[in-house]
Specification:
This protein is of the alpha/beta class. Among the domains are: about 80 residues, Arginyl tRNA synthetase N-terminal domain (Gyrase A, domain 2, 2-Layer Sandwich), CATH 3.30.1360.70; about 90 residues, no CATH class. It has 21 helices and 13 strands. It has a 4-stranded antiparallel sheet with strand order 1-2-4-3. The relative contact order is 0.10. The model has no long low-confidence stretch (mean pLDDT about 95).
Amino acid sequence: MKELLDILSEKFGAAFEKAGYGAEYGRCVVSNRPDLCEYQCNGAMACAKVYKKAPIAIANEVVTSLPDDGAFKSVEAVAPGFINIIIGEKTLNAYLNEMAVSEKNGFEPKSIGKTAVIDYGGANVAKPLHVGHLRPAIIGESVKRILKFDGYKTIGDAHLGDWGTPIGLIFTEMQDRNPSLVFFDENYTGEYPAECPVTLKELEEIYPFASAKSKEDEEYRARARQAVFELQSGRRGYRALWERIMDISKKDLAKNYGSLNVFFELWYGESDADPYIAPMIEDMKKQGIAKISEGALVVDVKEESDNKEMPPCMLLKSDGAVGYDSTDLATIVQRMKDFSPNKIIYVVDKRQGLHFEQVFRTVRKAGIVGDDTDLIFLGNGTMNGKDGKPFKTRDGGVLRLEALVKDVRDHVAEKMADRDLSAEEKDEISRKVGLAALKYGDLSNAATKDYIFDIDKFTSFEGNTGPYILYTMVRIKSILEKYSSVSGLSIAVVLAKAANGEYKLSDIDGNDSEKKLKLQISLFSTSMAQAVAEIAPHKVCSYLFDLSNCLNSFYHENKIVAEENEEKRKGFIALICLTLKLLETGIDLLGIEAPEKM
C-alpha cells in the first residue's frame, strides 16, 4: 500500500506533466503551516529556475491541470509559487479504511530478503547488569524490531565479554580462595563436576575484589593474564570452569534482559570469534596490510581525507596478546561467514566511535566486508542524573540495572496506591507502566544524545511519556467497553469488525479534531519509513505522542458512544479502533506492553 504522500505526489506529478513540466516537481509534503493548509507542493519554485518562468504562473497552471475528481477539498496557488492543499474527506477516509484492513496498517516493507545483525548487549559474564547497560539494550532491541517490521531477518547478538581479563581475574581469585578445586589440578583426567563451584552471588563479589586487588598487585595481575592465556590455549580444567560460569551467568543475564523485554537470537561471546583470529591475521599478512610497528602487529587505516589523528588498528600487542580490535574484527569475519548480512549495527557507547571506525576501515581494507554490507556504529549517549553527570547511586556507586527497574516500578505503584484494583492487578500494571516509563523516557531521545533521568517526569501520566501513551490506549479500550455494553457486541467482535472493514469511517463532515486525528493516522507509513531509514526509535515515539494527543483532543470534543447518528457512531468506533491498532504496533516496536486498565 502506497504512502498517502506518494499518492498525492503522483496526482500533482501528472498535473505538472499535463501543464508541460517534469513530473518530478509534483512532490507533496505535510504543510509547515497547518493553519493555512494540510499539505503543500512547492515544486513550482524549483521548476521556475529550469523553465525560466514565474513560479506563481507555473503553480496556477498546475492547479488548473488537476482533475476535478473530488480528491481535494481545496487547492490554491499562492505567491510566490506555493500550492496549498486541503485533502477531501472521502479521499482521506478511503485511505484510512484501506489502512484498517491491510497488513501492517498499510506500511509496505522494503527490505524483505535482507539480513541485519544487531550487536547490542556487551555485558560481561559473572558481573551484574548496571545502568550503563540500559541504553544499548533497549535501543538495540527497538532497532531490531523496527528493522524486522521493514522485512529484515534480524539477528540480535548479546556479544558477551567472556574471554578477557575479567575471567582471568575471577579464576585467579577463585584459586587463591580454594586451591583444591579439581578445575585447577593440571593432572586431573576425570570428568569435572557438572555444577558451578561458586554461586552467582559469590561471583558478583569475587570480580570487584579481584579487580581492585590487581591494580595494586603486579604479580596477581600477571597471574590473571596467564590464566586468560591458558584458557584461550585450551587448558582443560579452565575450559570446564569457564563453561560452568558461562552457564549460570547467561541464565541470570537472560532473566534480567527479559525483565526489560529485551531478547537475543544469539548469546555469542568474544570466545566464539577466537577460532577466526589466527587465520584472519595470516590472511592480512599475506595481503601485506598487516605490519610491525613498535613491536605490535597493526593495520594502517589512516586516509588522506582525515582531519584528525587516526591510530592504526592493532591485531597483536607487542607481547603477542590479542586485544579488542582483533576480537571485533574476527567477530565480523564470523558474522559474514554465518549470515552474509546486509547490515551490521553496533549499539554501544558513543565513546567507542574511534575504535569502531578503525575496525570498519580494517575489514573493508582486508576485503572481509564488501560494499554491499553496511557497517553502522549507532553510538548511544549517557543516561545522567539531575546533576548532569552519569547516573550513580546515592553513595556514588554504579547502580545495578535490576535496582533501577525496581525503583521505577515502585514509583509507579505509589502513584496507583489509591486505585480500586486488586494487589495482583496493581503489581501487573506497575510492572508494565514502570517499564514503559523507563524505556520510553530513554527511547524518546535520539540515541546519540545524553539525557537526564527524571523519575517524576518519566512516570507522569501527562506529557511525552510512556505512561501517557499507555493511558491513551486504556482510554480507547474503556470507550470500546462502553460501546460493547450498548451494542451488545464483545470488544473482540468490535475490533474484528473494524479490522475486516465492516466498520468504516464515515464521510459525514466532522470537526477539526476528527480531521486532525485522521491526518495523523495517515502519516503512519511515512513516519515508520523514517524510523527505518534513520534507524531511529525516537521517530516512533514522536509519532505515538502526536497520535495520542490527537486522539485525546478528539475524545474531549466528540460524543463517541452517545452519538445518535449510527453511521457516524460506527465511523467513530472504526477511527478509534484503527488508532488503537497503530498505538499497539508502535509500542511493540519499542518493546513496551500495555495493561488492560490503569
